[in-house]
Amino acid sequence: MSTGELSATQARTRGAIIEAAAAVLADDRTATLPDIAKAAGVGRTTVHRYFPDRESLINATILDSVQVVTTAVAAAAPEDGCAVEAMRRVINAMISVGNRLLFLFDDPNVLRGLPPEAVPDNSYLTSLIERGQAEGVFDPESSTQWLEHALYGLVMWACQDSKDGLMPQHAAAPAVIRTFERGVRCRD
């Protein structure tokens, strides 16, 4: 079934299946279609109506997750305002799509087969960190790549801890912001 032919109800059902797939597969890469169907609140035959096999569901979930993450970060307007405020918005945006981040980035094999134009673009983060370093608010002695890795590590662990019930969802972004800023902000 092509996505162009879907009614509003069918589009919502397809979206719920993809959302459930991202959440379930982030926890268990070997999850079956019945596991995903149960999490989506639909039957296995409904999943098969939209996705003929597990591979097509995973591929659709990868592409949709890239779009969801890209849209969330773009909505945070990382190029606007001072670097500290922009970074806070980006962190909040990333945490808000935590299941998608965990699905995409917890297993390096997920993105391996994607064509280059479909791979998530993180140039916004590089630019934001460089801007923060130029503004004198982010540590200029650390490389941009190191600061990106540190941020992604904090975000991923906050998303995982939140998902595992070790941290309330509403506490994840503030915890990442505090930890990141205390570690990378320039001191007077």
Give a quick summary of the entry:
The chain is mostly helical and 188 residues long.
Superfamily (CATH H level) name of the largest domain: Tetracycline Repressor, domain 2
How many strands, which pairing sense, and closed or not: the largest β-sheet? Answer: none
* Low-pLDDT sequence parts: none
Helix content: 55-70%
Q: What's the domain count?
A: 2
What is the average of the pLDDT values? 93
The ordered string of helix (H) and strand (E) elements is HHHHHHHHH
State the secondary-structure class: mainly alpha
How many DSSP helices?
9
Relative strand content: under 5%
Radius of gyration: 18 Å
The name of the CATH architecture of the largest domain is Orthogonal Bundle
Secondary structure layout plus pairing:
Elements (H helix, E strand, L loop, with lengths): L7 H20 L5 H8 L3 H7 L3 H22 L7 H14 L1 H8 L17 H12 L9 H20 L5 H16 L4
Helix pairs in contact: 1-2, 1-4, 1-6, 4-5, 4-6, 5-7, 5-9, 6-8, 7-8, 8-9
Q: How would you describe what is shown here?
A:
This is TetR/AcrR family transcriptional regulator. Keywords: DNA-binding, Transcription, Transcription regulation. It comes from Mycolicibacterium peregrinum. One of its GO terms (molecular function) is DNA-binding transcription factor activity. The chain is mostly helical. The chain has two domains: about 1-50, Arc Repressor Mutant, subunit A, CATH 1.10.10; about 60-185, Tetracycline Repressor, domain 2 (Orthogonal Bundle). The chain contains nine helices and no strands. It has helices spanning about 10-25, 35-40, 45-50, 55-75, 85-95, 100-105, 125-135, 145-165, 170-185. It starts with 7 loop residues before the first helix and ends with a helix.
